[in-house]
Design brief:
3-methyladenine DNA Glycosylase II, Chain A, domain 3; single chain; Rossmann fold; TIM Barrel
Amino acid sequence: MGISGLDIFKLLPKTNCRECGFPTCLAFAMQLAAKKVELEKCPYVTEEAKKALAEAARPPIMPVTVGTGDFSFTIGGETVLYRHEKRFEHRPSFAYSISDSMKDSQVDEILNRIKVQKWERVGELLQPNSIYLKSDEDDVSKYINLVEKVASNTEFSLILVNENLEAIEKVLQFCSDRKPLIGPVTKDNIDDFISLAKSNSCPILIKGESLEELIQLTTKASDEGLKEIVLDSSPNNLKEAFDHQIYIRRSALEKKNKALGYPTIVYPFELTDVPIKESVIAGIFVAKYAGIIVMKNVEPESLFPLLILTQNIYTDPQRPMTVEEKIYPIGNPDEKSPVLITTNFSLTYFLVSGEVEGSKVPTWLLIMDVEGQSVLTSWAAGKFIAEEIAKFIKRCKIEEKVSHKNLVIPGYVAQISGELEDESGWKVTVGPREAVDIPKFLQSYKVA
Ligand code: SF4
């Protein structure tokens, strides 16, 4: 939640000395609130005011980054309760649970299965990004061996969970540079964990036996200077887990409870023994605020729908997903290849381009910017109409790439074909309504 210009102004010296480059302190405050200038530009801000400003500008739910490299992820940083108010910022991470009580062969099998779980959808790579390594046996060397094995065989972000501090200390000696999340921090070990997290610059996982205890522990960690904290509220059942997620988010956003202003971790597999129910419960926590969702079921049919659900919930509802307006050559087209046109709504683009590719017919695909709307919607909005398409045909310079003037338009806008021919001078053919029919159409389509 941002701080207002007037609130900032109250903390400035109010001398209007102009050294910051602005005519008044108020003008500077307004620019600072709009994040257009840095606080350091004013040499007269007191340390006390700096602290107050930093505190006031703190997001209601602190962002936490776990890991480094391609599999690192950030959670938290959220500012709204409901997606339609603005958007949800950071998607939950799906972490697979592996324990030191598992046999080597079991661990290998899980790792092999997780590594291949990746899917491309509307131009994005969807995959799990972390592994939750827990200790079920109080055997330090067993835990070290497990972490060593996983760290050396994968690039996933690591969540290291062991109540034996010596074990965490030892594994950090070889993997602290991967910025793992470490825990569980409890009332009994918080002092030692805080110094371990500080010396290794790691985020911590705090586990409270109740929400009250959680608040006490996060307050202590925060007072000690730790900012990257993940909350485990130890729910006893699904209802409690659901209630805790909502209570924590509401407290942070509406009651400005800073002690609960951190992302959370949930364990759907602890709330059921039925694998499919684990996925359903995980889906609930995708919608209801979890930062990390720890999974046991490594079946792709369990994870795939969850990743799709996450992608859908975490897109910006005020901004349609779009692709760039341009000519997309598919399969090395030449001057005699067909020319198809559609809109820049990314789902439309990926469906159409996928089918064109599948047809094995080299094709020029023209993607026209209609602010990310689908074919019918943009036609109804007066954006994908004959006059505008004719302008786009000229603008994109497709005439420099082909020796013909034949254009295929989506079947949904068949009604504009005559007018488009008049406006553009191109011969217009009405293509299929559905993308799935494109391969059959292209295989029999002849450029005149
Ligand atoms: S430098 Fe500081 S005190 Fe001077 S005008 Fe700017 S904000 Fe005000």
